[in-house]
């Protein structure tokens, strides 16, 4: 792990693979450290000949934290941090992969820093602006599950925070089911190295404004990876993105929930992502990869 320091801000990041290979920058969702892009996933991509970068967004992991409920940064600060990472690594332009809120950041950069973006991959995301039409609301069960989460009374109690983190992720599982052992391992690692988990789980939702972006203004090739069982952003959200972005294709993934692609779908997602980065097109109907027509 390395630390980028600038303007009293610290951003922690990791690298996998050969720096001479095509650069792929992974951007996590709201409240998530880079731990949710697991080393195993990064290593699988690196083994395909990619230079993979993941990082802790502000208020997660080992990056800069603010007091809970009082973030001292904006949504635009978060949205431009990936460019700062690329600058630190002397990467002129990268292939950006964003999950959920990270997908919103990728859309922002695809418009406002287009020269730094080679391709976009949007995983379980939603249009960050523009005229997407009426899209379905999140599953009502999510709000019920959120209200039923046990309160963390002592944020220094690592076991309690891990339990809270795991239970918070459970309702976002798709039809493949909830792999509790895997999620608990990720949460344990995240809690063990994070500066302030209370800030991690609070502050991102307070800075969501300011990065609204019309996906139809994106010019780089885009791959939209979306599940048919995402309870937060149902499939029409991904379909809207693929429709709005001029050079986009849609990869439908059966059974995945609102999460970074789990190992059970790597055999579908990884080849599609690699082909996308390498300039080959995605067959949006079957979900299999193939060369450009």
UniProtKB/TrEMBL annotation:
Residues 22-260 form the AB hydrolase-1 domain. Gene3D superfamilies: alpha/beta hydrolase (3.40.50.1820). Coiled coil: none annotated. SUPFAM superfamilies: alpha/beta-Hydrolases (SSF53474). Pfam families: Abhydrolase_1 (PF00561). This is AB hydrolase-1 domain-containing protein.
